[in-house]
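pinging the channel bc i need a second pair of eyes. not urgent but kinda urgent?? the chain im working w is below, pasted from the shared doc
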Amino acid sequence: MNYTLKEEGKFKYIETGTNHPETLVLLHGLMGALSNFTAVINHFSKTHNVVVPMLPIYELPIYNVSIQGFVDYVVDFVEFKHYDKIHLLGNSLGGHIALLYTLACPNRVQSVILTGSSGLFESAMGNTFPRRGDYEYIANKARETFYDPAVADQALIDDIFSTVNDRSKAIRIVATSKSAIRHNLADKLHQIKAPTLLIWGKNDIVTPPFVGEKFKELIENAQLVWFDKCGHAPMMEHPILFNRHLELFLNAHAVTA
């Protein structure tokens, strides 16, 4: 199902329907896209207003490119849309932003869902992009993200290759990665009281299993679900199972319950 990308002021986003009482906000990762959440959007648009703000990773002035800059953007977006009591789902960098948003605006968050989230430890491409222009190197890096390398199809690899070979975009990616690593949340996670669902791939090499376990330990009201044969993006590798667990969690913690 195709959804129109809306533009209002500085915001670009999709919104599936305001006629539902529950709002599910999805935050993508550093190189994420709407396609990462296709199965989630299609499934939950029947019961929720599913919203995906496009994080301005390549649009912010370089001096504002930081994880805090993206949190501020989400704060402004939620205020602009007048959302209240949102369910906030983030993958990878999006999970990190979701956590920081929840810490900053706890009264606006009904529940938190993290999958492959940064915020404690992450191991991606590092602080630089070696071998720019080396398509096979980038392709291998993309495939390593998943348990099944076939999930990294030609379109995904081409998109990543194009991004990292754009000097302006590459600089912003590196700046964001460094900012995320510096912004460790280990000493703040105990402040999060919202019900939290952690969905983790047992074969995630970017945020390995011990990271999911540590989030479970540090967030007071968290439950952890493991996916076998799964890497860094469970919603892409196991969409049906992911939606099943997410649906049970959202039903248990609905605003209208």
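so DSSP finds nine helices and eight strands in the chain. and Confidence is low (pLDDT under 50) at residues 125-130. — does that match what u expected or am i reading it wrong
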